[in-house]
Amino acid sequence: MTSDKSKLGFYLLLAPLLLWLVVLIILPHIGLFFVSISEKVGVREYETGLGNYAVFFNEPLYWRTFARTAIMSISTTALTLILGFPIAYYIAKMTRGRTKTTLFLMCLIPFWVSELVRTFGWMILLRETGIISNALQSIGLISGPVEFLYNDAAIMVGLVYTSILFMIVPLVTTLDSLDDSMIEAGYDLGGNGVSILREIIIPHAMPGIVSGCIVVFMLSLGNYLTPILLGGKDSLWFTGLIYTQFITRFNWELGSAFGFLLLALSSGIVFLGLKLSRQTLTETMGR
Amino acid sequence: MIPTVPQSNVLKWSYRAYVTLFFVYLALPLSVVCAFAFNDSVFPSLPWEGFTMAWFFGDEAPFIGVFHERSILRSIGTSAFVAIWVAGLAVFVGTCNAFLFVRHNFRGRGFLYILMLLPLIIPGVILGISILVFSSTVANTLEDATGLWFDGLRPGLILVILGQFSFITTFATLVISARLQKFDLSLEEAALNLGATKWGAVRQVTLPFLLPAIVGAGVVSILMSFENFNTTLMLVGSDSPLTITMFDKLKHGSTPVLNAVSLLLIICSAGLGLISLLFQRGKS
């Protein structure tokens, strides 16, 4: 009797999960794939084929934008790691008690604020009539207004800013669990700062580094706001192409193919990152 | 480098200088957004023309404040409507998922768990277009078959809610599962021994224990829904949520009324975030 009842309970719990995953995740992606391999031959007439993918590889604008997006996302990830690691280390190891909580909270606050607001802030700072241009003029470093917006450096600054918190949080968590006595032992055994960093701290922080890098890479690759607003009209970002195909050109078949390529790239890099560091998705994300 | 091991002063101070510089970098964009909400000029840029509250309360063109700008007020309402639905659905499904994954051991559990995590690694734009394509296909098929209209499956608020729900649920599940794992099962057994029914024990013992996580997950869901852009952009119809309205205004250049909205958003989201953190910390 009780087993029947708990079986019913089990299915009742399973139902929402399956409904969510099947209707909103699995079926839409299968649908996206089928649309991406159909070519329009007439009004509401379609043929199956790889034509949309061929268009992507034959048009330099498309695959160059794709490569550019990938390379800039990888550079953003690397830059975020290099800039974020010392901060995470400082919060985890150099501070105690209330200072630590305060610094950690100060890192979290910008993450709660909408990305749009953060990007807006950078626009005010970087534009021709903006703060940085004016500040440099008043010091006398430049003679006239300079436009800092609408270039790749501006995109990178914005991308690092929006994603650095996702690097710092997992790093602080893993570094926190490293016992200080390990580092002291390293010094006692004659190690110097560099060798201790390489032999003790980085291996211990590896899970945090991997999950931080994966999240930052994903966020940069899938970002739309920052490249479009900070990069201006000519900024080429792959999500921008997808948006154009779907909403402006109404070419859903090509847009779906683009979407699938982006999905393949992001899952490929995530898979590679997990394999190289010998971790699983469950360990990295499910915390 | 740790405090107990002595280091040269130069190193120590340059490290501190770097950390300070980093926090300036973090605070800079948000502070300028807030500061220019009070600039008495129609552009959110220098020169500084003096202090004004017109971007909040003004009702004369061109100084139309937040509280008199119809399009912004309407989109705040839309965002709130979407956020409440998303948070409600995500917390409900997240709680069910937490019980399923923590309490039950079944075939395919590991596989389903990985599937549950997938929305985290799918870019938001892709989630948006896949749901858009799928719902349009379903709508076309149904309309061809029945001759009726299915507007709910066309871009609009229902799709925005479903799109945001599809990945926010993962976060809700993770937050609630983490707390359920800490629950001592013997408490529930004690309730059963004292004559409670299974459901009664869950409702009176387990759910109160989970409450901080449920509230936390709800707040996080509301924040994420409010600030979501990528998925929403692909699914939005004629009623646009706040982020979409702000994006349109930003692209075409706008008055500091946007700074005023942003300032209100910063205050609300930082406040909500701090409250949820304190709430979770206080209970655990």
Automatic annotation (TrEMBL), chain A:
InterPro entries: MetI-like, MetI-like_sf. It is a multi-pass membrane protein. It is found in: Cell membrane. One of its GO terms (cellular component) is plasma membrane. The keyword Transport applies. It comes from the Bacteria. The chain crosses the membrane at residues 12-37, 70-91, 103-125, 153-172, 208-230, 250-274. One of its GO terms (biological process) is transmembrane transport. CDD domains: TM_PBP2. It holds the Pfam family BPD_transp_1. Keywords: Cell membrane, Membrane, Transmembrane, Transmembrane helix, Transport. Residues 66-273 form the ABC transmembrane type-1 domain. The keyword Transport applies. Belongs to the binding-protein-dependent transport system permease family. CysTW subfamily. This is Spermidine/putrescine transport system permease protein. It comes from Pontivivens marinum.
Automatic annotation (TrEMBL), chain B:
Its main location: membrane. The keyword Membrane applies. It is a multi-pass membrane protein. Coiled coil: none annotated. GO terms for biological process: transmembrane transport. It holds the Pfam family BPD_transp_1. Residues 76-276 form the ABC transmembrane type-1 domain. It is found in: Cell membrane. InterPro entries: Bact_Polyamine_Transport, MetI-like, MetI-like_sf. The keyword Transport applies. The chain crosses the membrane at residues 17-38, 80-100, 112-136, 156-176, 207-226, 257-279. Keywords: Cell membrane, Membrane, Transmembrane, Transmembrane helix, Transport. It comes from the Bacteria. GO terms for cellular component: plasma membrane. Belongs to the binding-protein-dependent transport system permease family. CysTW subfamily. PANTHER family: PUTRESCINE TRANSPORT SYSTEM PERMEASE PROTEIN POTI. This is Spermidine/putrescine transport system permease protein.
